[in-house]
Design brief:
- The complex is a heterodimer.
- Helix content of chain A is 63%, strand content 0%.
- The longest helix of chain A is centred in the first third of the chain and has 23 residues.
- The two termini of chain A are 21 Å apart.
- Chain B has two domains: 55 residues; 161 residues, no CATH class.
- The longest helix of chain B has 53 residues.
- Chains A and B meet through α2, α3, α5, α6 and α8 of A and α1, α3 and α4 of B.
């Protein structure tokens, strides 16, 4: 969850303006402040730490080259950066279809599972829940995944998410609601045998899991 | 309202997203009466909490320092290049201004010549054997010179002419086009072989290759000569000197040659 910015620090857009004017310190400060957001956004979309780090580098290279093109009236700096990251992620997904999920169907339609009576997350250990949900998010069709990542994982406002995605707020909102319905449906399936599903998921996609859960910096624990 | 119509507000409420006071009041009223929607709210709240766990579980980037160092190098290179680019642009602007001034001067010369009309340049022996078209331009506006004697016009095409010091024109076919047009002529103020050679005008750089043209005679204020790269010790009481301007096939001045210029005039190197 992004921390609320202290009121005494230089705003992002001012840092960006200074960086565009050649201030290396401002650029470094902006990078340190915002690269975790870009990294997490790319990570949740791609599932790969390596790819996410590459995207971070690509995004801030755009800042180096074209930071002056940022328009503060159109989006926050964070949303602008995520919008750039989104383009790089989409390029990479196009280039490397291995980044797309093969574990769930990506037909964009939630399954017909009745999730009205069952809370699919109830009774799962925290680590299992995280793993299953993470995989379910990653299996969402990209437009829905983007909405969940920005709004629920990055906790971005609808307005900022809309700016990052280049679509109306209403579209973001409807995609998010639909995405959550898809997640619930898929989790309901997993909940029939959660432990087996989690273990099976790890076994079926070792490379992607190695790129995330296997990282030294991962904070995921086995706490229940 | 049906339960479906409350779905979006239920999700927003569960996420902690902004729901208007009126919408929340309506929703709360519905939740009190609808167990299904109340359960949905709980599930959505669980989903929100679980998604935040997913967000919190994400690893940190492991190469931040290396990426930052690389970006800062790129940043420094970019802005150093930008600074060099600015200086280079400034130099280009200065140069362009100088070339523009020279082009204007040359254009004025040609305009004055054309305005005055063509005139025959008499050959030394008076037989009209010269091959160059020469136009008298006695009153070049920049020179404020007294009018020169009218001469009969000639309209022969010439190719890279080399004129003897005595002023009688003669073509030098072997040197046709040499250095006139797209390339600069070598600095060649007054050849030791006793003839004055044409030197290219700065404004000729970049023009199409010289193919053919004509020569027009003009009078220039000596004060203008530095603009053509000549350091001149003015010895003319009138403050003007005569010059032949070589006009190319595109009516653009390509080269200039001074007539009766004292030998203490030197082309700047």
């Amino acid at each position: 969850m992004p921390a609320a910015p202290p009121t005494d620090r230089v705003p992002d857009d001012e840092l960006l303006r200074q960086a565009a004017a050649g201030d290396a310190q401002a650029f470094a400060e902006l990078f340190r402040r915002r690269h975790p957001d870009v990294f997490r956004f790319a990570l949740h979309l791609t599932g790969s730490v390596q790819t996410a780090e590459d995207v971070v580098q690509d995004v801030f290279m755009v800042v180096v080259r074209d930071g002056a093109r940022y328009e503060p009236e159109r989006a926050t700096v964070a949303a602008w950066l995520c919008g750039i990251a989104r383009n790089f992620v989409r390029q990479r997904i196009e280039r490397d279809r291995r980044l797309t999920s093969v574990d769930f169907t990506d037909d964009g339609e939630p399954s017909a599972v009745d999730n009205g009576a069952v809370d699919p997350l109830a009774g799962l250990l925290r680590a299992e829940r995280i793993e299953i949900l993470r995989r379910a998010v990653h299996a969402l069709p990209l437009p829905y995944r983007e909405a969940v990542v920005l709004c629920d994982l990055q906790e971005m406002s609808y307005g900022d998410a809309a700016a990052a995605l280049g679509c109306p707020v209403g579209t973001v909102r409807s995609r998010l609601h639909r995405a959550r319905t898809m997640l619930a449906a898929r989790l309901a399936v997993s909940a029939l045998s959660p432990a087996a599903s989690a273990a099976d998921a790890r076994a079926r996609t070792p490379s992607r899991d190695a790129g995330w859960a296997g990282q030294a910096g991962a904070t995921s624990t086995g706490r229940g | 309202m049906s339960c479906r119509e409350y779905e979006a507000d239920i999700v927003d409420l569960a996420r902690g997203a902004g729901v208007s006071v009126e919408a929340e009041a309506r929703l709360r009223g519905h939740l009190d009466a609808c167990a299904g929607c109340a359960a949905r709210l709980v599930r959505e709240q669980h989903m929100t909490a679980a998604l935040r766990d997913v967000a919190d579980s994400a690893p940190q980037p492991s190469r931040s320092d290396a990426i930052e160092a690389q970006l800062l190098r790129a940043f420094a290179a970019r802005h150093a290049a930008g600074t060099r680019g600015t200086a280079s642009r400034r130099r280009r602007i200065v140069a362009r201004t100088a070339w523009g001034w020279l082009a204007t001067a040359a254009a004025l010369i040609v305009a004055a010549v054309l305005w005055r009309g063509s005139a025959r340049w008499p050959s030394p022996d008076g037989a009209g054997q010269g091959s160059a078209e020469v136009a008298a331009a006695p009153a070049v506006s920049l020179a404020a010179a007294p009018p020169a004697a009218e001469t009969a016009p000639r309209r022969d095409e010439v190719a890279a002419p080399v004129l003897p010091r005595d002023g009688s024109p003669q073509a030098a076919p072997g040197r046709a086009g040499a250095g006139v047009g797209g390339r600069a002529l070598p600095a060649e103020p007054a050849a030791d072989d006793g003839i004055l050679r044409f030197v290219s005008l700065p404004t000729a750089i970049g023009l199409p290759e010289f193919e053919s043209g004509r020569i027009v005679r003009v009078e220039l204020a000596t004060a203008m000569l530095p603009a053509f790269g000549f350091d001149v010790v003015p010895d003319s009481e009138s403050g003007v000197v005569e010059a032949d301007v070589l006009i190319g096939q595109d009516d653009q001045p390509r080269a200039i040659r001074f007539v009766n210029l004292k030998s203490d005039s030197r082309r700047r190197q």
